[in-house]
Structure formats: structure tokens, C-alpha cells
Amino acid sequence: MEDKARKDTAKKETRRSSTSPKPKGKLSGAHAAEDGKDASPEKEKGIAEKVSQFRWVMCCLLFGCRLVCQANRILLGALLPIIRKDVGFSDQEAGQLLAAFASGYMLTQILGGALADRLGGKWILQLAINAVSIGSLAAPFAIDQGFWPAYWTYFLMGLLEGPSFPTAGSMLSKWIPATERATASSLADTGGSVGGLLALGGGPILATMVGWRSTFMVYGACSVVFCAVWLLFSASRPTGCRWVSQAELAMLIKEGVVEQQPVQAADVDGKEVLAAASLNKVLAEAVDPDATSKKPSKTKSEDGFPWRMFLSAPVLAVCYAHSVFNFGRYFLYGWIPTYYSEVLGVDAVTAGFYMMCLQVADAFVKLLVAPIADHLTSSGKLSILGLRRLLSCAGFLGFGGGLLLCCFAPNAFFVTVALVIGKSFASCHAAGFKTNYLDITRKHTGSVAGVGNTLATLSSTVAPMIAGSIIQASGWNAVFVLCFFVNVSGAVVFGLFSSASCIDPVVRED
């Protein structure tokens, strides 16, 4: 009888457990793995459909960084004629003051790019925009103290802003898939064009209204506001960013932008957060607690500077293309205002308006070409390498051709038309060789861009000096012809030796 009673009790318990409702909600850990369902199908579908677009917010923030850096850099040159009337700097002192920024700028690009690759770019760019903002606020006081205080102020601004270009490239490589890089790179690069436009166009106008000292203060104060925005919303990588959805993160993993491993990172409030590489990674950690302690294999160059990469043809090609671009660009900015004044007899205000037309065309074409370029690659109509070569070869030949047309232009209007045509073609480089930095390396974008921009800065330094010597010896037409052939050489080298394949070293350590 007792055995029969125990059997009846066991049957009742079995029926009770089978009819009891299952707990609702998401199961975690091994229980979720056993059950096979950690969320309802509707919830999973909702997460999959909700792909955030924070990578484009990051592009807009990088646009702002380039704008702030370029506007504060160029503002001195835009206001220098007014400053000289007030302070009395000589021609030699004015030239040295303009060179002070570049002297510091070229010293920190390689180091800054390498640090961005290793540590992330947020705080390096934070330092750069803070420096130019505070520098503009301090500039009136330094200039009033004399030449040397002003010189060292701008030297330090250049020194701390130097890493900005390679760091921006390093951050884009960690945020943007290959099929969106032309648009993203062009959007960030357009910030420099808009910054130049605001400095060249807005600076002198504001100075006539409130004075040059107050103009520096206004630009500096506006830049400080952006520094706060950057601090609050930017992140070096998607895996360390609180604003990125799991769906967007999964998409970036699928595109090969983010490595498929969790990373411990601190958010802006100082709290430690687990940046999961995918939705399934958290579940895998619950099943295998040692999953996060397994270190991925590393390449030999991962922890060091990629010296061997600079012997490869693709890296040399993009560095040469950047140097050729800067040679023509800084000849244009350095000498064309003088050409308007001395050869064409145009007053300074009208010449400034013509130069602003070039900046407007530059920004417009960058924003127009980039989405078309990405559509061509994402739809399979053109390979990434074919696109990069097409745009940069067109940029070099078009810009060189525009300068060559200046030899035959009868007046200032036709010279401006020729220069606008040339500058519009040159704007294609934003989706050409400038984006190619992101194609050829994933781990060392900052280092490679730092070396490339350092060489380009040297080119931009010697270009005005070479042009001045040729103008004095042979006249203006000789310089226009020289710039044409230099740009042709850029098209040939980049067209033959560039690559869109990642050339990061693949030899692995044991």
C-alpha cells in the first residue's frame, strides 16, 4: 500500500510540473542555451530591423573637427592684413608667423597617427581641437605682446593639431564599411573646406564690425562649444560606444570593420561596460566563461610601427599622390591671390571673393561625388580600386588642366572659371587617394596617413618657394606648366601602382 501511495504522489508531481507555466522573458546563461530561445521572435526581429546610424553621427563629428581645426588655422592669414596695420609686423615677420603653424604641424603627425592606431583617436582629437580653440582665444593677447609670443602660440597650435588628419583617418577605418568610405571620407574632408570658407569669408567681415581681437575670441569660443560636443558624443571605436545598437555592431562585424571579440571599455561616465561583438557573443560567454580570456593571434606588426609597409608600392603611391596634391593646392593658396593682384590688377576684396568661389565649388563637388561613388561600388558597377583610380586620375588631370588654362585666360573672370573647373576636379580626391588610406590598411591607418601627410606637408612647404623662384626667373606661365606636369605624374603613379587591397602583414606569432 505504501509503495502504491508513493507512486501516485510521484505521478501527481510529474503532472503538476508539466502543466506549470514557463517563466516569461529572456533566459540567460546556460539555461538560455539549453532552451534555445533567449527572446521572442518579435523582439529579435525588432532588434534586427533597428540598425542605428551612429557611424554617420561620428562622420558629422569628424566634419566638425576638421572645420574647427581648419578655420582656426586659416583665420590668422585671413586677418593678417588688418593685424599688420594695427601691430606693424614686417613682411619677414608676417611670413615667419604664417610658417609657425606648419613648422609645428609636421612634427607630430606620425606619432599622433601611431598613437591613434594603438589607443584610439577620441582623446587625441580632443587635444587637437582644444589646442586650436584655446590658441585662438589666446592669439590676441600673444600678438599684442609682440612677434615671438605670437610665433610660439601658433607653433604650439600646429604641434598639437598635427595628429588631426591621420587620427581622423584611423577613426574612419574603425567605423565605416568599405562601401561607405567614399561618402564618409568626403563628408569629413568637407569640414576643412567649410572651415576655410568661414575663415576666409567670415573672418575679415566680422573683423570690420567688431575688430580683429574680438574676431579671434568669437571663433575660439564657438570652437570651445564644439569641444564639449565632441567630448560627450564621440567614441574611438564602435565597441566602446554607448550609442551604437547591437544591430549596427553586428552589421559592422559582418562587413569586417569590427573584430568579432568583446572588449572591455569605459563609457563617458567612467562605468565599465561590456562592448559585445555580436548578440550571440554574450550567450557564448555564458556557456564558456573562458571565452573572453582567449587571446586572438596577433600579426608581428600589430604592436609596432609598420616600417615594412612603406616599401610597398601601394603605400608609396598614395603618399606620392598626397604630396602632388599638396604641391598644387598650396601653390594655389599661396600665389594665386598675388597673381590676381599683380598680373590681373584685381583689388584684395574682389580677389578674396574669387578665392571663396573656389572653396564653395570644392565643398559642393565633394558632397556630390561621394554618394555616387559609393553607389557605383556597392552596386557592383565599379570596383573599389577602379573607383579610386578614376577619381584621383581625373582630379590630377583636371586640376592640372585648369592651371594650364590660366596661361590663356584673358582676364580675372576667365582665370576664376579655369580655377573653379580645376578645383572641382581636385575635389574628387576626397573619394580617391584620401579614402585609399582606409583601403590599404586596417590596423595602421593612422601611421600610414601620418607619414603620407608629413611628406605632403613638406611638399606644401617647398611648393611656394619653388614657385617664387620660377616666377622671378621665367614668369607665371612657367609655373602653371610645371604644376600641370607635376599633376600628370601624380595621375600616372597613382593609376599604375595604387591598390584597394588590405596589405597589413599577415605573418602570425606563435
Automatic annotation (TrEMBL):
Membrane topology of the entry: Multi-pass membrane protein
| Entry keyword annotation includes Transmembrane | yes
Q: Where in the cell is it found?
A: Membrane
For bias type Basic and acidic residues, the affected ranges are 1-16, 32-44
**Which range is the signal sequence, renumbered to this chain?**
none
Q: Which domain of life is it from?
A: Eukaryota
User: Region entry Disordered: which residue ranges?
Assistant: 1-44
| Residue ranges of every copy of the Major facilitator superfamily (MFS) profile domain listed in the record | 57-502
GO MF entries: symporter activity
A GO CC term attached to the entry:
membrane
Q: Name one Pfam family in it.
A: MFS_1
Is ATP-binding set as a keyword in this record?
no
Record keywords, A-Z: Membrane, Symport, Transmembrane, Transmembrane helix, Transport
Q: Where are the transmembrane segments?
A: 56-83, 95-116, 123-143, 149-169, 190-210, 216-233, 305-328, 390-414, 478-498
Instruction: Write down the PANTHER family for this protein, in alphabetical order.
Output: FI19708P1-RELATED, SOLUTE CARRIER FAMILY 17
Protein name listed in UniProt: Major facilitator superfamily (MFS) profile domain-containing protein
* Species of origin: Polarella glacialis
| Organismal lineage | Eukaryota, Sar, Alveolata, Dinophyceae, Suessiales
